[in-house]
Each structure stands twice: as C-alpha cells, then as structure tokens.
Amino acid sequence: MVIKVFTASSSGSTAIKKKQQDVVAFLEALKVDYTQLDIACNVENRMWMRKNVPEEKKPANGIPLPPQIFNEESYCGDYDTFFDAKEDNSVYAFLGLPPPPGSKEAEQTDKVDIVENGTHAEGNPDDSAEVPVKECNGDAHEEEQQVQGDGEDGQTAGDEERDEVEEDTQAQAEEEEEQVKDEAEEQEEEEEEEEDLEETQEEEAE
Predict the structure, then answer these.
(1) Pairing of strands 34-38, 3-7
(2) Most CB atoms closer than 10 Å: which of 76, 110, 128, 161?
C-alpha cells in the first residue's frame, strides 16, 4: 500500500506550506513509504484529488486544499485529522497501516487487546485489589490537577495553531478558485484565436 500526499509546490500560503512540510517530515521520520503528488503543476493530480475527497470533508466552497492524504484510493484525511492522529499517537491507524512492533501505537493496541481479552497486566494480576493512595497534605489531589492542567494547555496550544492558519487557508482557497477561472479564460482565448486564424486562412485561400 502506497500513501499519497497531495501538495502544492507553488502555494502562496505560508500556512499551507507549513502543513505540507509537517506531514512530509513526519512520514519520513516514521519511514513510511509515500508518494508526493503536486497539484499546482499537474492538472490531473488536482482534479483527481478534488474528485476523491468525500463531499462531507470538503469546505464550504467545495474546493479541498492541500495537503490531502490517501492510502491508494482510500481517503485518509486532511491536515487537521492528521494533526489529531499525531497528537493521539494513532497515525498508523489514520493511514490504514499496521503499527510496527515496539512503537507507541503498537503498545497502545496491545493494551487495548489485553483489556478486551480480560487479561491483566503483569505486576497487578488482581485488578480488584485497590492500590492505596497517600493523600498526605493533598499531594495526590494536587498531582491530578497538575496533569489535567497540562493536558488542557496542550489542547489550547493545538487550537491556537489551527486558528492561526484559518485566514491563510481561506485566502488560498479563493486564490486557487481564481486560478481555475483564469485557466478557463485563457483556454477560451486560445480557442478564439485559433478560430480567427482559420477564418483568415480561408479568406486568403479564396
């Protein structure tokens, strides 16, 4: 199975370039085989990507922006879903690939299997036995609050990062839509020029 990453080499949006680099760099770090397909210089790649992104995943204007990720013909998601999978250590599941042995995702899968099969982890064979927790001076409660606060801070940072790129993403959508219109107009002008040339040649022949 080959992972396909649709990108735009000549994108004018800094946010989109950053997203594309983030996806590609992470896949290379994981040593995942992938193919990078440019939609800026290849019309077929652009049309295939827009056609195969599910309607419910497209933005309001109907034009999905890069990066878009596929596993062969199967749609995996865009940058936002990729980012969520990376934060949850579930990138392999997002890509539709089995996690390699020893990876964090494989360890999480093993833990889930242990719970589902009713097998207890070593070191605590009887989960019915409660582990006593010392609450001297409220240390345990404070530690729990600190962990919860760290999780909220991480979530806030991720939300802020997404908010920063929303305006650039919308601007890029409008820019690509204008580019498509310009291409159509150029094609019409070429056709008109060809028709004028044919008429001129016919008049000269007469």
Answers:
(1) parallel
(2) 76
